[in-house]
Amino acid sequence: MNTQHPPGALAKLLGFYRSRFLRAMEEVYGITMFGMRFFAYVFKPPYEVSEVRKHMDELGAKSIPLLTVVGLIMGLILALQSRPTLDRFGAGSFLPAMIALTIVRELGPVITALIVAGRVSSGIGAELGSMKVTEQIDALEVSAVDPFNYLVVTRTLACVIMLPLLTAYVDFLAIFGGFLSETMSSNTTMKLYFAEVISSLTFLDILPGIGKRAVFGFIIGLIGAYEGFNTSRGTEGVGRAATTSVVVASLNIIFVDMLIIQLTLLLFGSG
Amino acid sequence: MNQNDVLIDVQNVSKSFGDHDVLTGLSMQVRRGSSDVILGRSGIGKSVLLKSIVGLLIPESGSITVKGQQVIGMKTRELNLLRQNIGYVFQYAALYDSMTVRENLEFPLRKHMELSEDEIEERVVEQLRLVGLEESIDKMPSELSGGMKKRVGLARAIIAKPEIVLYDEPTAGLDPITGREISELIRDLEKHFGITSITVTHDLECTRTVADTIYILDNGTFTYSGSFDDLQRAEDPLAKAFFLGIT
Ligand SMILES: Nc1ncnc2c1ncn2[C@@H]1O[C@H](COP(=O)(O)OP(=O)(O)OP(=O)(O)O)[C@@H](O)[C@H]1O
Ligand SMILES: [Mg+2]
Question: Is residue B140 part of a domain?
Answer without folding.
Answer: yes
